[in-house]
Amino acid sequence: MRIGMIFDNKFRSYTTGNYCYKSVQRLGYDAIHFNPLVIKNTGITYDYTGLPECDLYISIDDDFAYPGPPVPKEISAYWCIDTHRMELMAGGNLTRWQKIKHFGHVFMAQKDRAEEIGHVWLPLGYDPDISRSLNLEKVYDWCFVGSLNSPIRNSYIPILRDKFPNCYVGQAEPIEMNHIYNQSRVVLNLPSLNDLNMRFFEAVASGSLCLSKRITNGIDEIFGSSIILFDNARDMCAKMNDILRFYNFYVPRTKRDWLDHTYDSRMAKMISIIKERLRTGTIC
């Protein structure tokens, strides 16, 4: 089966599409990457000229506003990732609400949106080649890897940094990020819109503890009790203090021999569902 993987990785090199593309290859499929974005005098646009002939086309959400490929709907699929942001995307006037109508098979990364509009919930995951335990010495009490571009991050991080200054806060490329996670006792996560984001999966896969602002979007079904949740700044500091004081008690939470949330498993599930629909002649 030849699968065309459609996503941009020029403007945003560390995109989920890269992980999915690798996974489809690891699963044994003839995977081809196609980037529809082009730069013209008028700005960023798209062009499907040269789209290779494939048995199935999977578009991975990259936050750019271009439509699905010009192919029959039954062989086109879309993994809508930022389902908590369905408004206009970059480089155009297309919303995710509009984009999902271009595809015969739609998968949603957040449970609440999937249930709302009746599509398959396919959570995010991690790449085991990048996110894994390295058994490194713990250098930091806690870390936050990411940009400080949201009110919740700018509100909570200074409070925690003031009380627990032995930390790493900043951006990092994926491999460096995993090293920082491994060097930290705790990985802080601050979801902004009740989203089960990628940081949950990458933190747990690294073997470090994950302390997160509470969400309710399927987290219990995915992680059970392995994520430590807090409700407000005071609760965050109290739980961080408790973790650092009784760290050896908390460490067993990171046991993840049951955890199978790799992008390989996500792509395998997606393709299996699509194959069954093609066999029975149904689309979503």
What does this protein look like?
This protein has 284 residues and is α/β, with parallel strands linked by helices. The chain folds into two domains: 2-125 and 262-280, 3-Layer(aba) Sandwich (Rossmann fold), CATH 3.40.50; 140-254, Glycogen Phosphorylase B (Rossmann fold, 3-Layer(aba) Sandwich), CATH 3.40.50.2000. The protein contains ten helices and 13 strands. The protein has helices at residues 16-26, 96-99, 111-117, 151-163, 174-182, 198-206, 219-223, 233-245, 247-250, 263-280; strands at 2-6, 30-34, 37-40, 43-46, 56-60, 76-80, 105-108, 120-121, 140-145, 167-170, 184-189, 209-213, 227-230. The protein has a six-stranded parallel beta sheet, with helices on both faces. It has a five-stranded parallel beta sheet with strand order 10-9-11-12-13, with helices on both faces. Helix 1 packs across helix 10 (263-280). It is elongated and about 60 Å long. The protein starts with a strand and ends with a helix. The model has no long low-confidence stretch (mean pLDDT 93).
